Amino acid sequence: MSTMKINIRPAKLEDLDNINRVIEAAIMTWNLPERVKRLSLSSYLYTSIDFDHLDIVVSEDDTHGIVGVAAWEQADANDVPVGKTALLLHGIYVDPSHHHQGIGQQLLKRAEQAVLHYNFDALLVKAQSGAEGFFQKQGMRLLPIENTERHYAGRYWKIVTAIGRGERIYEVHPCTSPST
């Protein structure tokens, strides 16, 4: 674990090129055929329009600039357990040269704080198979597939509730079933 100081802040439109650089570098490490990565890359990159619809944050350090990205928006009611609300985490991307330094965990914590800020019940992510282990280690639980035509196989869920005052004090309740 590195001792470098990481700052997480809201992304700005002028960050877009660096955000996409991080996303591309991260995707190119995925365990997929090169052609699949190359053809799917454009669907993961952000555009200026995404700034109108998503909350996007970046992690940066003084030496390397932007080294991580996370984005979220309100989850569609059809993707979450009945009676629950959630933020949909679109992804956490960390530059490969900064893997295993806690940056992904910090970005996930920021998304959990956003759950509280927007008064949602939980955080939902549709995880790419190579990222499922990360989300499991962070206490997220796999949701069952209830609608085979709609539900993504790797839907992970974490309930987040406040336990005190202040933006950084919260409690996460991993659940084994969506009704908890």
General description of the model:
This protein has 180 residues and is of the alpha+beta class. It has one domain: Aminopeptidase (3-Layer(aba) Sandwich). Helices cover 27% and strands 27% of the residues. The chain contains 5 helices and 8 strands; from the N terminus they run βαααβββαβαβββ. Strands 1, 2, 3, 4, 5, 6, 7 and 8 form an 8-stranded mixed beta sheet that branches. Helix 4 links the parallel strand 4 and strand 5. The longest helix is centred in the middle third of the chain and has 15 residues. It is globular.
Helix and strand layout, with pairings?
Elements: E1 7-10, H1 16-27, H2 34-44, H3 50-53, E2 55-61, E3 65-74, E4 86-94, H4 103-117, E5 122-126, H5 132-137, E6 141-142, E7 155-162, E8 170-173
Parallel strand pairs: 4-5
Antiparallel strand pairs: 1-2, 2-3, 3-4, 5-7, 6-7, 7-8
